[in-house]
Every structure is written in C-alpha cells, then in structure tokens.
Write a structure and sequence with these properties.
- The protein has about 475 residues and is an alpha+beta fold.
- Helix content is about 35%, strand content about 15%.
- Strands 6-5-4-7-10-11 form a six-stranded mixed beta sheet, with helices on both faces. A three-stranded antiparallel beta sheet has the order 1-2-3, with no helix packed on it.
- Helix 4 packs across helix 5.
- The longest helix is centred in the N-terminal third of the chain and has 25 residues.
- The structure holds zinc ion.
Amino acid sequence: MEGGDAMIPHLVDYQLVMLVLLWLCLMVPHRWPSPTGGAPKTPTRPIRPKRKRSTESKPFAGLTQKPHCALCEQEIGARSPAPLRRPDPMPPTHRRPRTVDTSMHFCPHTDCDYRGWLGLGNLRANGHPSGGPWRQFHCTACDGYFPEHHGTIFHGKHAEVDLIVRVLACLAEGLGIRATARVFEVEANTVLHWLVEAAEQLRAFSAYFLCDLHLQQLQLDELYAVLRARKADAISDDEAITRLERSPYWVWTAMDPTSKLLVVVDVGCRTLAMAQRVVHQVSQVLAPNCVPLVLTDGLKDYATALLTHFGYWMHPERRQDKGPRPKPRWMPLPALLYAQVVKSYRRRRLVGVIHRVVFGTRLAIEQILAKCGWTINTAFVERLNLDIRQRVAAIGRRVNTLCQGEAGLRDQLVLFQTYHNFVLPHASLRQPLLIPAVTSGRGSVKVWRPCTPAMAAGLTDRVWSLKAVLLYRVPPWPQAQTV
Ligand SMILES: [Zn+2]
C-alpha cells in the first residue's frame, strides 16, 4: 500500500470487501444447485466425472489360460447337424398364374426333400377345406398337405385367433396374468398356457431373425427382478446386493444403443458363469469379425466374459536370442474396446460416477461415441431396463404366483423382447417421410415413418403386428441366399 493520507478510506474498503466475501461464502452453497442433489430425471445425460489418471488401467498382460465358458464347452461337445443341401427350385408349370403368395411357407413333412425351405415353388394354395378359416397348402414334392398355421400356436386351438393375440398383447403391455384373465374372461391357467406356448415360438422367431448382426456398440446391464423383504434404507445397498447376488432373479440384458435392439435377455444369478452365458449368446448373434464397443456397469465379471469370447492367443517375441520361448498369452482382440461406468451410491443416492477403460484406449472409445454425440454411458440400457420393469409384470411388483420361478420369467421376457424389437415403433428411431402422407381420417398429415429396433438394425423392413409375428411360421434353419 502506498500514500498514507488515504489510509482510512482504504481500511473501510478492506472491511467492506471482507464482509462481502464472508456473505458470499455463507450464501453460495445454498443458492447453487448441488451437483449430486436430485438424481437426474432422465438417464439420457450421464454425469461426467473428473478425469483421473488412476482410472486408466495398466496395459493388460494377458492370461496363461483361456477362461472357462460352460456354453462354449457344450458346443464343442455337441456335433452340429450335417450341412443341408438346398434342393433345386421346382420348374414353373403352365397352369393358371398363382394368386396366393406361398413364398413365406415351407413343407413341414419330415420325409420331404423340400422340408423347411422357402421359395422353391413346391407349394400350391388349395383353398379352405370345409369352409374353415385356415387355408390349406399342397406340396408338389411330397404330395403332402398342411394348413397355413402349421407350427404356430394357433394350430389345434379352438379359441379365436384374435382373442389369443389380444391376451398376449395385454401381457406384452405389462398386465399380469390374472388381470389379463379377468379382462378377457378366460381361465388364468389358459392365459399361462398360451404364454408358455407363444414363448417357445417367439424364441424361435427371435433366433431366426437375430443373427449376423453388425453392431457398433453394445450396452450390458443386470436388473433385479424380485425384491422381497427389503425395506428402504433398513439395510445398506451393499448388503442388499450381497443378499441379492444369491437370488436367481437377475435379468441380464444386452442391447445396441444405436438401434435400441434388445440383443440378449436372460435370467440368472449375478455371477461370472452368468456373465459368460450372456456374452456367449451375444457372440453367437454377431456377424463374424464383428467386435462392438462394449459399455457395462462396474461388474468385474464382464471383463473376464468379454475376454473369453473376444480374445486370442498372442505368442510373445523372445526377449533374447537364447532361452525358452515365452508362453503364449490369452489377450483381448485388438479391436475390443470396453469401458465400465462405475457408480457409487450412498443411501440409495448416486454420489459418484467413474469411467473405467478396461480394454482399448479412452481415445478410441470416445471417438466411436463422439460420432453419436455421446460420452461413455450406460444410459440406454438403463432406460430399456425401466421399460422391462414397466412391461414385464413379474418384475418389480408383487410376485404373481402363476408366473413365479425362472421359467415363467423367461417366458414373459421373450415376449417383451419380440414385442420391443419387432412390434413397438421407437420414438427416437422414426424417420422423416420425404413426401408427407395424408391420413384417411381427420388427423394431421403424417410426416414420420415409424421404425422399430429390428428395422433400425436392418433385420426387417416393416413394423410387425403381434398377430403377424405369431402367425409367422419360423423355418427350421436359416435360408441361405444361394442362387
Ligand atoms: Zn413336401
């Protein structure tokens, strides 16, 4: 300070500044929204953590043994069926042109060479026998007959098709089995029976369409299905999770955040064996050489499971000219990028998020995500899990005794999976129409083309109705696009 004559005004200024600073210190924490207070309403905006050097993992040194996966072992043991030869198409006849499209049907007769193959011209529509609702087909190869609903859940049922479809649609929308039974005035056991049969067909439907997937990204997560005797805050979350880890009711999901396709959904414990099982199923539906960027929560078993299915034997170079060759190491494929979103909770509130890069580099991961305008997150699979909670009645509510147990939960989940992937258009996937379509009623002009996850993933070109899905006769094997 200089100039003694201005000492008093300076002192007053100084005190004033101190007072203002003190007031600011007291008031600011109250006025500023706390960064952790109030959990984010929508999970679409992940919380960005401070970057820390410590979260970067050291280069992975590799394993001396390939980790064990039960499903991989099973597949080595079981011999795959002999490759089937597709028969030559039937020569065209000079009869009147066909009006009924038989291209989506196949002959089901076991002794027929054309069994299970689509579009070979061996089928003729044969009208409706005795005026019934179902058309009959005739196979010119084996001279056999079959109805158009052969192999679907409607075959051999007296109940109306529309009733069965509406009952299953109700279940798919999240109404419980007993409630659905009351709405349609049918026996609860009948509803359960239809669900079990439909689930088997839908499993085949999903398996038929979900193959050779080219995915850029995958998000995996687990959610607990049934919470019993868990009072809020009575026990800590860690205790609750430790108890729940032994419960078989964890729903495991793997989804593509770009197309929203639910790739795998399974039920089991929260263990390494189950992580292996889920990643194994994911690896089975991916196209050869497709290695997506994987994002999961902090469950460490995912790293082992991913390493098992997306790894290779690396043969290290000899350090010196002499001496034994170093043992080969099981390493992640160079293309494998994997990061975890590790959330920490205190009293059921999110208090921190750390992004842990496990395989690959942070830069490579961020470059892929930046194309979509995203950062490292698991928000999309968490949003999907919320949908599962709302649409699968057996989860997150009072246990329905009719659907208790793993098998019942699986059936409801496969219904959800098909409904989500093929039937429900997803709002964020809709595409603008080049030419707005005028609607038939008084509604406004349509400017969007609805799009389902399966359409976005390139598996189909249309929105399926649940009825069309249930009427679809799933061929017993993939129809190779050979000429
Ligand atoms: Zn035949």
